[in-house]
Amino acid sequence: MTLEMMFVLTLLMTMFAMLFFEVARPDMVIFSVLVILLLSGILTVNEALSGFSNEGMLTVALLFIIAGAIQKSGLIDKLIKKWLQNSHTHTGSLMRILVPTSLFSAFLNNTPIVVTLTPIIKKWCEDRGIAPSKFLIPLSYAAILGGMITIMGTSTNLVVHGLMLEFGMEGFSLFTFTVVGIPVALIGLIYLFTIGYKLLPDNKGFDQRIKEDSKEYIAEIVVKKDFGHLGRRVEQAGLRDLRGLYLIEIIRGDERISPVRSTTVIQSGDRLIFAGLISTIADLQKIKGLELETGTNIELDDLKDGSINLVDAVVSDQSSLLFKSIKKSKFRSRYDAGVIAVHRNNERIRSKIGDIVLRPGDSLLLVAGADFVARYQQSNDFFVVSPLDTPAALYQSTKKGWFSIIILLVMIVTVTLGWLNMFKAMALAVLLLLTSKSITPQEAKEYVHFNVLLLIASSLGIGTAMRKTGLAEWIAAVLLDFGKPLGLFVILFIIYILTNLFTEIVTNSGAAVIMLPIGIEMANSLAVEPMGMAVLIAIAASASFTTPIGYQTNMIVYGPGGYKFTDYVKVGLTLSLLVMLTSVFIIYYVWF
């Protein structure tokens, strides 16, 4: 092993450790490694930047826009709602949700599908007294399974396709994965309808627990005549930056002042409504002239009068809020919203709100203005943003929605018939959507997840470094020395398991990029079809079922479903084994 190979291997091990312990956002960790490889001279400027012009990465960007235009139309939401109306049994309802989800995910990026359906299904479950936890993990898993059916179902397939083109290989066709994807999806769905459903927890939704425990979130303080700050503004009275408490409303006679500004003047007789960590209310009681109203009849539902929204938001794994305390992130001034509770691992974090350091998948209960949902529904900082009473109806006209779907179908036909390649077809589709005003340039920009693209492009650069230094060839040789006596069948299992482990640590696209050079080197050494190895790695990188952190869709449903980390292991481990066995057997007999 050369010094260069040792240096790259050390960087990779450090990167894995940082991602595993969540030291920083994944895209920043992987981009930092790329910069170090550039500064060290291992990569040239052109090599480091090649990932940013990679066809697969750019195709992912275009797919985000197309999926966003269809998501914006609300047609999928409406179709799912109508489809569920006549369902009377839990298993029947589950089938009505999972089968269309897998079909949609085959031709749209599965992440926006889960983002769209999560609040709808959650609300549907709660209206019928069904635990959302029985439906949301299956929703995520069905989207992942559906994404394996075609090249465009998941960003992983497109990234591997783009990398194969760089290696001088042919790349995937639209339906290369179908021979593996359909059997895998069918077996996975049958498992979810039967054994998997029984293993799922029966949790109350975040919303239900909030409403039941509303007295833990709301406190009322009455301002007496001897209060020392009468006639002063809220900020001057020291009521603005309280530890774990948020002044959300002032009731003055028949008048309700909300939202409360820092310039609002405090008067005698005001009833101050606070939300947040009510155990810290003792700090306020020590102030002369402020009296706790123990028999308050104010509840969370009373605050939804149009000027205030109670919002449930799930922190994204690409969020700029990650690994910062709520106070340091200046959440209140940044979003004009106050965090009054944080749930993680199905438990409410009982700490001072401002001191809580946010992690991916955290569910935030927010008190926000009426326009919060409209402004931040497509923000990269949050996966799901929806009011607690009903999902926001922010949809465009039905005609434009159908036009977006027709554009997608035409694009699929042109790729299938070989008239255009995937990138050209998607570029044309985006152009048509923009010129028809089905989506505006500003909306298109909001739908693109730039953090995801940075992660993918940086990963591609790291893959180049592994091939250039010979590290990929060295790792392939080590694996071959171990696996060759056991046969090709066992080697395929080893590659699959390694890729699957990496996807739980590095994310799916990163795992695929790191493992593909190794897999191609092994295929060349064994003189077997490299296409089969590429399909194996793409499937293994997408098949993240055992943790919430390996795949975005798992993270999206983490908070809304009130899940614990172990729930994914309990339900997902058997599914992972089924997918692995099915995939390896089919790939072995089709390509080798």
Structure commentary:
- By secondary structure, the chain is α+β, with helices and mostly antiparallel strands.
- The chain folds into 2 domains: 3-206 and 412-591, no CATH class; 308-387, Regulator of K+ conductance, C-terminal domain (Alpha-Beta Plaits, 2-Layer Sandwich).
- The chain is built from 24 helices and 10 strands.
- The chain has a 5-stranded antiparallel sheet with strand order 3-2-4-1-5, with no helix packed on it. It has a 5-stranded antiparallel sheet with strand order 8-7-9-6-10.
- A hairpin with a 2-residue loop joins strand 2 and strand 3 (255-257).
- It is globular.
- Mean pLDDT is 84; it is low at 390-396.
Strand order in the largest sheet: 3-2-4-1-5
State the separation between the terminal residues, measured CA to CA.
Answer: 31 Å
- Unreliable spans: 390-396
Name the helicity range. 55-70%
Largest sheet: 5 strands, antiparallel
The best one-word shape is globular
Mean pLDDT: 84
- Helix segment tally: 24
Q: Strand pairing plus helix content: what structural class?
A: alpha+beta
GO molecular function: monoatomic cation transmembrane transporter activity
Protein name: SLC13 family permease
Subcellular location: Membrane
GO cellular component, one term: plasma membrane
